[in-house]
Amino acid sequence: MSVIETAMANAADTGPPLLEIDGLATHLGHSTNPVRAVDGVSLTIRRGETFVLLGESGCGKSMIALSVMRLLPHSGRIVAGEVSLGGRSLRALSEAQMRSERGGRVGMIFQEPMTSLNPVMTVGEQVAEAVRLHDDENRMRVGERVVELFRAVGIPDPERRTGEYPHQLSGGMKQRVMIAIALAGRPQLLIADEPTTALDVTIQAQVLDLLKKLQRETGMGILLITHDLGVVAEMADTVGVMYAGQLVETNSAREFFRAPRHPYSRKLFRSLPMAEKRHRGLEVIRGIVPALDQPFTLCRFVDRCESAIDLCRLQAPPWRDNGAGGYRCHLAPGIDAKQTAKDTVAPALADEVSGTLLNVTGLKVHFPIQRGVLRRVVGHVKAVDGVDLAIGHARTVALVGESGCGKTTVGKAILQLQRPTAGEVWFDGVDVARLDSARLRGLRQDFQIIFQDPAASMNPRMLVEDIVAEGMLAQRIGRNRAERRALVEQLLLQVGMQPRAADRYPHEFSGGQRQRIAIARALALKPKLIICDEPTSALDVSVQAQVLNLLRDLQDEMGISYLFITHNISVVAYLAHEVAVMYLGRIVEYGDVDSVLGRPLHPYTEALLSAVPVPDPERNRDVVRLQGDMPSPIDPPTGCHFHPRCPRVMPVCRERYPDRFRSDDGRQVSCWLLAPQHDGSL
Amino acid sequence: MSFQPVILWTDALVYLLLALLMLTVWHTRRHSHLKAPWRRVADRRIGQATMVLLSFYVVIGLLDTLHFHPRTSVDERGRAVYSTEVLSLFDVIAGPLRTQREKTYSAPFATHLFSKETVQLSDGSSARGFPRLQYGGAHLSGDGEGRLADIAAKALWGAAKGALLWVVLILPLCGFSLGRAARLLRGRLLQPWHIAAYAAFAVICVFSALWELAGYYHILGTDKVGEDVFFQSLKSIRTGLLIGTLTTLVMLPAAILLGIMAGYFRGWVDDLIQYLYTTLNSIPGVLLIAAAVLMMQIYMSNHADEFNSLTERADLRLLFLCLILGVTSWTSLCRLLRGEALKLRELEYVQAARAFGVGHFAILVRHILPNVMHIVLITIVLDFSGLVLAEAVLSYISIGVDPATSSWGNMINGARLELAREPVVWWSLLAAFGFMFTLVLAANLFSDVVRDAFDPRLREQR
To answer: ipTM exceeding 0.85?
Structure first.
């Protein structure tokens, strides 16, 4: 620990704790059979400390935050425990007093900046409202204070921005406005509930930086809620791991990443996809989080724990405190009874190349912008603007980029769900872009799609059997219902589900199970290519591992090719053979996964990779911070699209879009830095 | 046979509606996701109570739908001769109510006519006075002494009979087990139906008491031609229900098909359908209805020989009114469905179906239609009460149903002028108002419950 860090830690340790939660229990729903969303959670946060609550969805993290704020949903209530802020009990306050605490001593920012702001008020007015309510000193100079706050959260040109409406701001800017609102009351404690989950990695890096900077300046405590181990490593002083309504481990961040004590924490690390695990397959946490509407008499994790001993099934583990933190397990820390069984480990990626299955050249998708009564076309949104891709048999190509770069549109255009404006899509020797819809319909069984949100990709009014069999019906696979039923059951088994699942409705399943059903549905037609559109980004880490392993197994068994559309770099590193990085409708770097991720050549790739938080606080990263947001595809910048944000911009970049250069290891990079006259200047 | 069945046009459509309803019930019972919202409807107290009240109306309406020609005599060769008059099962049940006509107005529970007449006394001399009613309170001696006591006794007796009927109805439902019946009434059954049971008790007792009284008195008075107002109000139930349901049935196929097609296909299909309904929507509805109904009237009077009976003629006019109301009222549902289909077509499961190569028609039927049905259902129940009221308004300005058809609108129309006289004849208006109000209130409350149960957005909030 450096001198400065020690001094800071000492400063943080002195004085009474800022937030103290003791034995908090929050129930939801009917009182006879309540959902025990929070079940006896105790934690303390000191001034200047960042406490990160880590956990999967539905484990009660957000309920803790809402309990502190006393903003529980209508059916929720705090049944036990104490919450005190700066020595003063928040539970004892009247609602009127509590109102001045919210936004006063406690500020809160939410996950979705799009819905947290009122669309019909200017952002300046919304910040001013918070200032008027909570900042007595500045009540006379609200306007100036708003500009100060905007400047503090790093919004450029604050005087002008205060007069704008939320829809005129990008997602990152909106989240900055939300932070400004939270800061208006000069909070001692800031509660941030997944503040960057809805943002792109480069924007996430900006916002996390901003939070750290503000914390240094104001000395406020932060309660950060996240499911992302990378964000934990970036931000945390102390980590609390939530599981099924309880804290199962609290630890200092350093210790947590060095030697996590609870088996669940360890499993979380092992199920993370990473480049290093490429040849091993991911470990999975079997099963799902137990339902919280039951009283627990034994360890909540026992059904998913591989280290479980007999004692775990007899009584609930006690909380073992050991000074800096504690954990809730019968076992001594670090003991894994047995190493992971063979069957949980997927075989390594096959690496042979054989022929091209899909060849996309010059793909363009332009959406006309129509104005006026006569619907005159006044311009085009160039969502995809000249993309070339090739996918071999049994290969995985990852398409990476921030939201709005057109990667999903590429997927839809390849499937002809969105007819391309120009370009060719050669699939197995046929240019599908030129087929009429009748002939295309017959070819459709060869290429399939898996969507991001398994809940939205299945008709809620159909049985799983009918959902899986829909494609067979359309392509006339299976002669009768019984035959199709047999196929459906076989497919469900193949993706690791019970055949009985066929008789149930999709809403009866968890997210991971639903995604398996979606995969079974795609497999039903024995496709040669599956386009995976962010198939794991709606899933928790432990479930993500299950789905990724499944996809990989299927590739090995059936030789399916994938076009993997994602923004998650670690998934790419784990699964893909090749990677294409997209920026504003065009591919800027395209090549072998190891070389692109290991030694990025395009400045955008470099920035994108460096912005990804790594779940390791020890690793020193040179982070290339990108300024600003992605420009609009309606009106892309002249020359290289990336030049306004590029840290290595040259005069030529402003003039002309770079040609496609081939690097020495066979990559295609669209950047003037790679031009021959710059040879060796990298 | 002592009667010859007649199926009027509206009867046929009612049977069709019933068949559809039964098909829906059968389909719903087999799908848990369809059953769940109805269970939520049944779980609500208001839902149970209004359901009972509405089914009371429906039962009366259905009894009034079974039409036939009664046999009048047997001719010389032994063949039955049937009357040209069309009666319904309800007419037969209500027998005396229908036939016991007074001379003119009489107040509710009156024993004498409402207006003075010159009466011939037994001694041959004549005097002006209120003559005794021929049927109302005729069982009372003298000038109607002890009327109040008699009313109370008959009402109690009727209520007691109703209570007995209720017990007879409840017991088989509980499998003749008193323990089960007790648990039902305390709401301890798996599905607590006790509110429905109590509501049924109230409805049956009240109606039974009224029915008992109606045998001896004109409990809601008589109208200008001496017809019993209570009977008229009950007869109007069928008209009200028909207008409320048949109109929907008529407009539903067009609204659903065009609505989801416009939303799903977009492009020129959407433009065409949008132009169609915006055009139709900008024609003032009342004018369109008036023009259509007047044209129908002319046609009917020019082709009077095509109709076997007055009832048939009135029935056709009723059906026509339903049609024209349907034509003017499908646009709002169509617009709603278009919006919803626009949203649904972008959903991933529709995209997935397209990726499978599923045809457009199959997507419409399998993916879009089932997911807009909750909107259709909510619209049907919400529109129902509006249509019942619309009938009253249209009949009031005499472009509604045939004057020979009993309907609440016609009753109000008939009572309109009498409101101006002194003393006021108020009972026709009040009776129509009361019956209509009860139906519309029940329908509105029911539709609220249905909407709460079916609207996915409202469900999540709870």
So the answer is: no
